[in-house]
Amino acid sequence: ASHDREASWQQVDAWRQWLSHVTGPVVIDGDHFYPIQQARSFFTQIVRHFPHAFSAMTAWQKQPSTSER
C-alpha cells in the first residue's frame, strides 16, 4: 500500500518475510472489529495461515539465552 496512512513503508516491508510464500490474497473471516473483539480467535487464524513463521519463532524462543551459554 504505497499510500497507506495507517502503516509506514517500513512496517509493511517487515511483513515480507511472513508473506513471501503467499501467492494470493489471505482472507480471514470476520468484520472490521474482529481482531479487537475476538482477539484469541483472530490470533488462532493467523497461526493457522502462517504456521511456518510461528514454528520458527517457537524454535528461537526455546534456544538458551546468551547469558545461559
UniProtKB/TrEMBL annotation:
The record's annotation in Pfam families points to: Thioesterase
**Which InterPro entries does the entry mention?**
Thioesterase
- Thioesterase domain location: 2-52
Protein name according to UniProt:
YbtT protein
**What lineage, starting at the top, does this entry show?**
Bacteria, Pseudomonadati, Pseudomonadota, Gammaproteobacteria, Enterobacterales
